[in-house]
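seq as requested:
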Amino acid sequence: MSFFLQSGAKFPVIYRLYCSSCADLSYYEKLSAQVVKNITEKIPFEIPDNWSWCRLVDVSSIVMGTSPKGTSISTEEGNVEFHQGKIFFSDKYLLKGNQFTSEVTKIAPSNSVLLCVRAPVGEVNITQRKVCIGRGLSSINPLCEIESEFLYYWITAFKQSLEEKATGTTFIAITTDVVKELLIPLPPINE
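struct tokens:
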């Protein structure tokens, strides 16, 4: 199964060989025209034959937060709402915060999935409005016809995996690469 992104890139580059005479049921990832890597040990579970594994970076636009200067943050509502962690996370949708910034650094567009990348790693919410995000968050904006809720539920399901990949002594955190390389099972769009 293959899909095409708006950029013209083809995915998944993760595939499995299916043939009646083959005993190889391994998963492979095509990293370049000449490099293919066996990633079977990284596949967390089996999916239906008509689904595909892909990397989060292949199906979304990922923005890592950057905090504005502290002097630009206030409770003045005329500025852009600012979030740097899970303080205003609810069960699913981001609640209205009480901090705003006049120095917009990184934006999470409406309907983006917000992922905590610093302690506590792996907490997830969806924002229903544009917000400025600080260092503790990343914004994951789905591409093509993928719904935010689809990514929300899958990223939530992989919280333990994200926590296991966190590093740090004072604050545990996950890197940009950990977020980008998260494996997501992708069904056909009509499902």
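The CA atoms of residues 6 and 144 lie 7 Å apart.
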